[in-house]
Amino acid sequence: MSVDNGSNGLLIVLSGPSGVGKGTVRDELFRVNDNIIYSVSITTRQPRKGETDGKDYFFSSKNNFFKMIENNELLEWAEVYGNYYGTPRQFVEKNLENGKDVILELDIQGALQVQDSFPEGVFIFLLPPSISELKERIKRRGTEAKEDLDKRLGAAKEEIYIAREYHYVIVNKEVNSSASTINSIIQAEKCKFNRYGEELIKEVIKK
Q1: What is the pLDDT of residue 144?
Q2: For the chain, which domains are there?
Q3: How many Cβ atoms from other residues are within 10 Å of residue 135's Cβ?
Q4: In sequence order, what are the beta bridge partners of 13?
Q5: Pick from 101, 106, 142, 196: most CB atoms within 10 A?
Q6: 3-state per-residue secondary structure call for 30-82
Q7: Quick one: which of 165, 98, 125 has its CA closest to 17?
């Protein structure tokens, strides 16, 4: 369910350390709120087997990507292992104008870039119940060597301190509860006077 206050949607930015469960919480949020769409990123890397252009990523040449940077067509971008990733501004703004809430799942670097260019967004940081629990979650994935695990945990501690830059923090103890909390935040944000109050008053007076 969603509250239909105002014509424009909300931009929601979700961050958190690797292994905290961002993707799982995001998927549950989609299940309980059908007005949210996931922002498709653009990348210069080659498509992997089974990936579809426009669904998984917008696949781009580096020249085109650099032109988008020059033309301020990206809300944020970063280089990762020689490939470039970014968030197309047009995709986000078009869906917001159509009343859709758009969620971005970004690392801290990307989120802080979006804060600069889109301060009216809603920034949510997902915390693990504890560092030891985060360690166990990453270990259960079975994808990290010990040295990589230690690096990820060290990075997670640094990232958690930067959570102070976000509007909301949620401890992800249980997926359904975390998704429900995010959904409640979205509904509350849509009831803020400084977002939609004047517009709603005008609509009510017309009727």
Answers
A1: 63
A2: 11-39+100-206 (3.40.50.300)
A3: 18
A4: 104, 123
A5: 106
A6: HHHCCCEEECCCEECCCCCCCCCECCCEEECCHHHHHHHHHCCCEEEEEEECC
A7: 125
